[in-house]
Amino acid sequence: MSKISREDIHLINTYSNWTTESLSAILRRHVYPDRQQWKLFLQLFIITLGVGFTVAGIVFFFAYNWNGLHRFLKLGIVESLVVLSLILTLISGQKIVVRKIIGTAAPALVGVLLLVYGQVYQTSALEYEFFLQWVLFISIWVFVSGFPHLWLLFLMLVHITIIFYMEQAQKNSSPSAVYALLSGLYNAAYFLNILLLKWRKAKIPLWFLQCVAIGTAIFATMGISNGIHHEPDIVFALLCIGTLIVYAFGVDYGLRQKSSFLLSLISLSVIIIIASIMLKISESQSMILVTGLFIILSVTAVIKMLSALQNRKENG
Amino acid sequence: MDKHRHIVKVLSAIRQEVPTAFQVDENALETAVSEDRYSASGVAVWLLSIVGGLLGAITFLSFITMSGLNKSNFGMTLTGLLLIALSLLIKRIYNKPLTDTIGITFFGLGFILFGIGLGRYGIDQNLIPAALMATGFLALLLVQHFVFSLVSLLIIHVGALNLLHSNKFYDGMYIYMILLALALWYTCMAEAQILRAWPICRRIYLPLRLAVLMAFLSVLIWSGIKDNIPVTGSLLSPAALFLGLMVLMIFSKVINVLNISRMNVKITVYTISLIVVFCCFKAPAIIGSMLAVLLCFFINFRSGTVLSLISLAAVVARYFYDINLSLPQKSGLLLLVGLVFILFYIFTNKFWKADEKV
Q1: In chain A, which residues have their Cβ closer than 8 Å to the Cβ of B193?
Q2: ipTM of the assembly?
Q3: Is residue B54 included in any domain, yes or no?
Q4: Interatomic CA distance for residues A50 and B346, integer angstroms
Q5: Is the CB of B358 inside 8 Å of chain A's CB atoms?
Q6: Straight-line distance from the first to the last Cα atom of chain B, in angstroms, rounded to the nearest whole number
Q7: Segment 97-136 of chain A within 8 Å of chain B by CB
Q8: Interval A206-217: pLDDT, tens
């Protein structure tokens, strides 16, 4: 039987003499969550709050410099907690998703462990060194976890590492370098996921792929729009060529998958880049007016193209 | 699957479930399905229209500023009103996706110019938000399109916030918070009633639901930041307790869905809920975000659930950041709350396992 969606019900309601009671009953039966969905939601909600508050409490505990505690005890407590969360993940008889949530605490606690290590031995490590160690130590767990929420956390950590690295260790680098690296990071993540999808038939949620694609588009757009206002250099050229290749692949993949999201994202990014180039050529009033018209007309053209694509998709 | 075939199947499935008096104008439905290409294009196209429209509005605003057209107050106000009227006219005459970007550009730009133009006249500060709210309300009545209705409703909300803030009516903020909570409750719990009310209600239901949620969450997040609302005596705790009461009411509905009949389990769930609510009696932002999460999930409003969860994380983080305790005390409190939730998880898990065996 075809699944009845809220959109279907709203559409049929417009042209029917449905009674409020019967409409309400249909919504409850087909759209609103049932007992099983509520059970799963409440379980995940409660355990996420439990693990989240506990880890935050541990972070706050060690953020205070406990001079009275021996370093062996400090490091020992955190290490024990890392091991405990891993044991709970591996042996508890819970649902797999609950185990993964508990397992997310372990990589977070590794950060606390490095923080305590820095406190105890006064390593005076730079921020990027701290985050780089964190990224390196948890990377294997992240790859084997098969948990997209943890992948997203990992991507955020790599993102922060790159920003600190460029600020602290590469102060004289090209202005496009940070954008090129960030764009490269999200590109690599996207391609890796596509490969996993194709060859390992991995189950990767759409929201994760969309988040990664948004990251790629944002940093490619920012990098090129910013780079055209500086002296062109090799990094900027690499960013442009890389973006061109990735977008060509993205359009091809989007057309084959008939993905409105991917095509909209790439189109919007290209429109913004072209508008930036137009404003770089001239910042006169007439050029600003032309740029405004260009944005409206090009977005309208893209919407028309996507609607045509959607029609073809629906008609097979 | 072809949308037409899908609707036919859905219709036949619904006919089996509803009384025989149920009738559908199938020709009109068929035509609507044929023309309903836009909604089928998905959220990506909506976002593309909105972002494209906003970028267009910003570019035209730059053009107006550079060309000196902004020097005339009357010119700005009149151009703003004309642009709003033009965008509404475009959507009323030709309500197709192709006119969305230009419509949104003119609509957004119109409100910006109208607001700036009025602001420069030096008139009473209350009149400007009131005029913008009235224009937004009029636009809402004239055109029922998702983005236009959403923008109109949010303009009304921002106007209301501005009125409360500029008049330093800080307790009014809590009254407004409670009114928004009631509005969210009604839009979520009375979906069928709203859809069967006047046609205009049906057409603005989706933007109304999203706008009420966004307005509610924005008030919660804003009030959750320390010193944003000066303490005047105040309605903070009554607001939190009122929201807490609503959380307990939604829990009673969830208990029905979960089909829990054993009295001892009900008492335990209510007791734990009461403890959680009582612990948050100084933090309406936290209890309000919890209410939003539960209400949105109750009706399977997914984007609303995600927004509410983000709001909950933000207000909880802010609460612990602002709270006047030392680091070890904060740590102890966080660990205690975490352990309570873990114990609650163990309790619910045991109960459900026992329940499944029964």
Answers
A1: 20, 24
A2: 0.85
A3: no
A4: 11
A5: no
A6: 41
A7: none
A8: 888 889 999 999
